[in-house]
Specification:
By secondary structure, the protein is an alpha/beta fold. It has a single domain, classed as LigB-like (Protocatechuate 4,5-dioxygenase, Chain B, 3-Layer(aba) Sandwich). It is built from 10 helices and 10 strands. It has an 8-stranded mixed β-sheet, with helices on both faces. Strands 4-5 form a two-stranded antiparallel sheet. The structure holds 3,4-dihydroxybenzoic acid and fe (iii) ion.
Length: about 290
């Protein structure tokens, strides 16, 4: 049977992708950001899964106000890189895993979560920047992402957005779905976006280090209580775009707890301010074998 072996959590700031794509990653400003991912790149080489289930948000690139799915699962064999206005990033297209994606959709929908099945979904910085941070950026012609990726898009852009509680329980349903897939696949679940940031209005530039630190502590040790936090607390304390953090609760719900293989091990933790307008947070949690 398939099993979830680990989860990765990281911010997804588009300027990080631009720094990599434009050869600026050696600059002191960006070095401080990328230094937090040196361990992670080696860890991913040592712990390459068969599939990554990547929870992210689309930023009006695949979807628009015409259609706003709360949860969209990418079931296609491949996903193009979105053109975000400056042309698509020069990174490989994403290869999907239609069999596992369809199985998860079947299981999770029967568990009463309303997923939208999507067979065409260009993926934007929300998905490609976490992949770049974790996989690095070799020359485009020789480069492919290390394994298939199932994109799972969550609406945290246009209200109403899903609660942390619903996201956490959805993660638990994804854990159950993966465990019933009849193939010996190692699966990682990645939760992306966050941490504190606000991009517009009088509070633009808001960063809340104390709140972010407490969020990381509680995500590790007591995610069920963290999941009770109402969405308005994220917006007040972590800024309007801080709401992206509810996606980390999907990945955490998919990991172990008292009902599953136990509390996961912290393999890596990093926090840095700033990258563009955002506080960068990053965690790797491993399930105990
Ligand atoms: C920034 C952060 C985001 O999450 C995003 O989607 C766009 C911009 C930023 O900090 O610049
Ligand atoms: Fe974002």
């Amino acid at each position: 049977m398939a099993a979830i072996t680990a989860s990765v959590y990281t911010s997804h700031v588009p300027a990080i992708g631009a720094a990599l794509d434009l050869g600026k990653s050696g600059e002191p400003y960006w070095q401080k950001v990328f230094s937090g991912y040196e361990f992670s790149k080696q860890w991913l080489r040592d712990n390459t899964p068969d599939v990554i289930f990547l929870v992210y948000n689309d930023h009006a690139n695949a979807f628009s106000l015409d259609l706003i799915p709360t949860f969209a699962i990418g079931c296609a064999p491949e996903f193009a890189i979105a053109d975000e206005g400056w042309g698509p990033r020069p990174v490989p297209k994403v290869i999907g895993h239609p069999e596992l994606a369809a199985h998860i959709a079947q299981s999770v929908i029967q568990d009463d979560f309303d997923l939208t099945v999507v067979n065409k979904m260009p993926v934007d910085h929300g998905l490609t920047v976490p992949l770049s941070l974790m996989c690095g950026q070799p020359p485009a012609d020789k480069f492919a992402w290390p394994c298939p990726v199932i994109p799972f898009a969550v609406n945290v852009v246009q209200y109403p957005v899903p609660s942390g509680h619903r996201c956490f329980n959805l993660g638990r349903a994804i854990r159950k779905a993966v465990a019933s897939f009849d193939a010996p696949l190692k699966v990682q679940v990645w939760g992306t976006g966050g941490m504190s940031h606000q991009l517009q209005g009088p509070r633009a530039g808001l960063i809340n280090r104390e709140w972010d630190t407490a969020f990381l502590d509680q995500l590790i040790a007591d995610p069920a209580t963290l999941a009770q936090k109402p969405h308005i607390d994220y917006v007040r304390e972590a800024g309007s775009e801080g709401i992206e953090l509810v996606m980390w609760l999907i990945a955490r719900g998919a990991m172990g707890d008292e009902s599953g293989p136990g509390t996961p091990r912290v393999a890596h933790r990093f926090y840095h301010v700033p990258a563009s307008n955002t506080a960068v947070g990053h965690l790797i949690l491993e399930n105990q074998a």
